Amino acid sequence: MYDERQKPEAINTLRRQLTLGAAASTLLPWAAPAMAQAVSMEGVDLAPTVTAYGQKLVLNGAGVRKRGYFKADVTALYLPEKTTSADAIFKLDGVRRIQLNILRRFTSSTITRIFLADFKDHATDEEFKRLIGPIGQIGAAYANVKEVVKGDVVNLDWVPGRGWLATHNGRSLNEADGKPLVISDKLAYQIYMRMYIGEAAPPDLRNGLLGIKG
After folding, report:
1. Distances (CA, A) of 29 to 11, 22, 24, 26, 39
2. pTM assigned to the model
3. Which domains, and CATH codes, for the chain?
């Protein structure tokens, strides 16, 4: 038979359990961000969040960019907030970052040649002619990189009010002949983004960067 004298103790135990459960549930929203882990791809660990020019960005997606049969880099896209819409990314007015985690060696001349070929493929003839000046500026920034090797990190950012800012292993590439190199044409960066998430971009890379699982 159930002993009535056990009631107060059982009730107190239940109250303690409910109190602990409620306390734990209130902590969950705060604990969740701390559980975020780096994404690993091709041996490259990609941080789930980064801070760029004072703004926190989240990893939207990542993919492997190839050149022929070779894997060139692990490309990561960082944005103020996640989205699977390329149109939303093109219209975004905040900081955007394309991060290239290099997987093999490329010389400066090869980097420039690849960039020009890709840029021309993703721009209309009219856009390409209009952007000759900014393209030359981007070429000058690329010329500051003598070569890239496995393990190098290149960040190519768009920062409102400042324009296109590039770094190689943390070193700024925005200078030419000892003077600051200001690349402020937004269309040039938009076309650069097309190379990765535009309709003509490699599907696997595009889907990876947009966080779309095929």
Report:
1. 29, 13, 10, 7, 21
2. 0.82
3. 4-34 (no CATH), 39-209 (3.50.70.10)
